Task: structure prediction
Amino acid sequence: MYSWIWRHLPGNSLVRAVISLLLVIGAVYVLFQYVFPWLEPLLPFSDVTVDNGGGTG
Amino acid sequence: MSRTVSGRRRRPPWAVALGLLGELLVTAGVLVGLFTAYSLWWTDVLADRQAGHQAGRLRQDWTAPGSGPTAPAGPGYQAGDGLGFLHVPAMGKDYQVLIKLGTTPEVLNQGVAGVYQAPYTSAMPWDRAGNFALAAHRDGHGAKFHDLDAVGKGDAIVVETRDRWYVYRVDATLAQTDKEDVGVVAPVPAEAGYTAPGRYITLTTCTPVYTSRFRMAVWGSLVRVDAVDAQRTPPPELRAG
Result:
């Protein structure tokens, strides 16, 4: 998978390394900005309030 | 280069499949690691920044000329409004958390202590009787109640509003209870040993750390109300080293 991406990147090794780094940064950005904020409420790790089961927190 | 590529392509299918599986597993591991970093570090960064900004604005509002010091700290607060600061010296010398109305994730994720509006509508510190019940995150999103287990009987809890210091003393703590145990934030929390209406405060969060399996609570009752002076001199409970 990763070697396939590497082979399909243009340029020499240095250019590919720079593009790879940008791709990684982009992926982390998308995860932190969009994916994780969406995922977090679906996971039971951050409920802190007492409630009747219906409320959130 | 192309020779290497064609050489790689001649790997047997099982080797290709195994290699792909390995890459997917490594990717999954990295994703879990990133999510942990997000939950325990990045949400703190965001929440602390937001809470710090809002805290500064509230203090500015308090000192702004024209917003008379006689403005009643009474009703009229909306969900999401900042109404003061919580000080708990047992959780750190300069521990200060912005207090806002509401305990929805939208409010709590801002790195504040939220005032319960449900299942019981909390009494405000200036009300004649009732329970001022607060919740905050144990981990992530500011983790303002991370060290709530360090608060013990006899410790001071101080609520700072525009005009008053409300000084409470911790009477009881509950290390672990069920998350549906709404009695801990009742107007007269019986589990704390209170039997008659009074001016109480309750701090709740989740326990054990890094989970949401159970809830813990700290209860206190009002000892004293000090007026805020011109220099906002903190009460002795907050000055002691």
Notes: Strands of chain B lie at 82-87, 97-101, 113-115, 130-135, 156-160, 164-177, 199-207, 214-227.
